[in-house]
Amino acid sequence: MSDKGPGASLPLVRPGNPRRIRSFEDLLRPGMSVLVVNGAGPNGAWEDAAGRKRDIRTVSRLRSNIAAHARNSAEAKATWVADQSIDVWLIWNIWQVASPDLADVIPIAPEYAVYRNAGIAVTTRGKEKPQAQKFVNFLQSPAGGAIFSKWGWKTN
Question: In a 10 Å sphere around its CB, with 0-12 CB exposed, 13-18 middle and 19+ buried, how is residue 39 labelled?
Fold first, then answer.
């Protein structure tokens, strides 16, 4: 298994941060428009972040500001680009690293940070192919880790 994963699920905001969002708590303000992913990728990370303090009111306040639910990260990106009325996109930081002109990152306080592991394993069928294990070994090597780090993934 790999010990690599995307960095924290972070609030991405419109370039220049026109709504002056500074923290996760700002996402709870009435009238904020938030895009989340419920499906593949950061599935439910928004609810994990909002529930970290064990206060259901935080979850409810964020839920009331959700303007769009995407089925996966790519659909979320398309929604973000198409709907300029959305203020915040809760997604892995790797999306902003790959497309820095798409959004600005708002740091998230540790008490709201959510991480996921990007596991990898050789399948039963893959065990018959030496290249499969070589690929896993590469991903777990310092050279593989450097590539993950370049694109914003946590490697430790």
Answer: middle
Comparing CA positions, the residue from 111, 60, 110, 113 lying closest to residue 90 is 113
Contact predicate 94/150, CB 8 Å: no
Segment 79-90 mean pLDDT: 96
pTM, full prediction? 0.76
DSSP the chain: ----EE--EEEEE-TT-TT---SGGGGGSTT--EEEE-SSSSTTHHHHHHTTTS-HHHHHHHHHTEEEEESSHHHHHHHHHH-TT--EEEEETHHHHH-TTT-EE----GGG-----------TTGGG-HHHHHHHHHHTSHHHHHHHHHTTEE--
Dihedral sign (CA 99, 151, 4, 59): negative
Dist. CA 115–CA 10, nearest whole Å: 10
∠ CA(62), CA(68), CA(70), 5° rounding? Answer: 115
32 dihedral zone (left: phi>0; alpha: psi -120 to 50; beta): beta
Using 50, 70 and 90 to split pLDDT, how confident is the model at 107? confident
